Amino acid sequence: MTIRRVAIIGLGLLGGSIGLAVKARSPQIVTTGYDRSAAVRAEAAARGLVGTVHDTPEAAVKGADLVILCVPVGAMEDAARAIAPGLKADAIISDVGSSKQAVAEALARALPGHTIIPAHPVAGTEQSGPQAGFATLFAGRWCIITPPEGADAAAVETLADFWRALGSKIELMDASHHDLVLAVTSHIPHLIAYTIVGTASDLEDVTESEVIKYSAGGFRDFTRIAASDPVMWRDVFLTNKTAVLEMLGRFTEDLTALQRAIRSGDGDTLFDLFTRTRAIRRQVIEQGQDDERPDFGREHGT
Ligand code: NAP
Question: Which pTM does this prediction carry?
Answer without folding.
Answer: 0.96
